[in-house]
Recover the amino acids of this structure.
């Protein structure tokens, strides 16, 4: 397995610290007098993030030809079924949605600021991952990139629906 660059390690450390910080501070800075409609929307977004966070594990294990005894991230082929037919980076989508959800639930500016940092990191990390995956899978991944949106799951659902009806 290829070693991670120091840059990637630093990004992962910062991402972890900011994500854990946002979660902990969401409890500490929770505004109990905040708008309940916004808070309820935040809970719905959090549940949606859980779906995008967990589905890739099962999808990769089912379709990715993961070697026996290896984790789902060791997929050996392009997976464009299930959630991967809707967005290319469902777990990054999950992280972005989670950052938004905690801000909506806690309703505090500091939680929002940490969320912005997380969203930027997830967004930029997707480009790094795509470069690496293009090297690994080549033209097949390029074709996949042309068919499936990076993050926009609403557009991905519409595209998926159109492909299934034609």
């Amino acid at each position: 397995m290829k070693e991670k660059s120091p840059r990637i390690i630093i990004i992962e450390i910062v991402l972890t610290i900011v994500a854990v910080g946002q979660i902990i501070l969401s409890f500490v800075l929770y505004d109990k007098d905040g708008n309940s409609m916004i808070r309820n929307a935040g809970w719905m977004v959090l549940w949606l993030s859980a779906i995008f966070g967990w589905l890739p594990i099962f999808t990769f294990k089912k379709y990715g030809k993961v070697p026996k005894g290896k984790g789902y991230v060791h997929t050996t082929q392009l997976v464009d079924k299930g959630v991967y037919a809707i967005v290319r980076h469902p777990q990054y989508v999950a992280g972005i949605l989670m950052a938004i959800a905690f801000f909506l639930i806690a309703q505090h500016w500091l939680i929002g600021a940490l969320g912005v940092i997380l969203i930027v990191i997830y967004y930029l990390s997707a480009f790094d991952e795509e470069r690496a995956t293009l090297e690994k899978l080549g033209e097949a991944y390029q074709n996949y990139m042309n068919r499936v949106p990076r993050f926009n799951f609403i557009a991905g659902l519409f595209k998926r629906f159109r492909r299934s009806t034609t």
User: Anything to note?
Assistant: The chain has one domain: 17-66+78-165. The chain has a mean pLDDT of 91.
